[in-house]
C-alpha cells in the first residue's frame, strides 16, 4: 500500500474533519469554524490548502491535532453523500502568501 492509498483511507474515515486554508487560518468545510494547525505539528509551517484532522483541542485557539494533507477530490470520491462539488471548489485563483496552500508536489 502506498502513501496516497493510506491518505485516501484516512480521508474516508475522517471526511467530516476537513479544513481548508483561508486568509485567517483554516476553516472547517461544513461549519466554517476557524481552526489552526497545532504548533507541534510537522505541517505547522507548511500550510497546505486542505487538511484532515483527528481532533480539535482548545487552548488559546481551536487547534487541529494529528493532521494530514489531502487532495479535495478525495472527499467527493469517499464521501459523495456528505460533500457537494460546489463546497469543494478550488480557490487556488485567490491570492495567498507565497508557498501557502500549495501541495508538496507543486513546490518542487
Automatic annotation (TrEMBL):
InterPro entries: DEAD-box_helicase_OB_fold. Residues 86-108 are annotated as: Disordered. It holds the Pfam family OB_NTP_bind. Residues 10-82 form the DEAD-box helicase OB fold domain. It comes from the Eukaryota. This is DEAD-box helicase OB fold domain-containing protein. It comes from Pogonophryne albipinna. The lineage of its organism: Eukaryota, Metazoa, Chordata, Craniata, Vertebrata.
Amino acid at each position: 500500500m502506498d502513501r496516497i492509498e493510506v491518505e485516501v483511507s484516512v480521508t474516508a474515515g475522517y471526511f467530516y474533519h476537513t479544513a481548508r486554508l483561508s486568509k485567517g487560518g483554516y476553516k472547517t468545510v461544513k461549519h466554517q469554524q476557524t481552526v489552526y494547525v497545532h504548533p507541534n505539528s510537522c505541517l505547522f509551517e507548511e500550510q497546505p490548502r486542505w487538511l484532515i484532522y483527528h481532533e480539535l483541542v482548545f487552548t488559546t485557539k481551536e487547534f487541529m491535532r494529528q493532521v494530514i494533507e489531502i487532495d479535495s477530490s478525495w472527499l467527493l470520491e469517499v464521501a459523495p453523500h456528505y460533500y457537494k462539488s460546489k463546497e469543494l471548489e478550488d480557490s487556488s485563483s485567490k491570492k495567498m502568501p507565497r508557498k501557502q496552500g500549495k501541495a508538496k508536489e507543486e513546490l518542487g
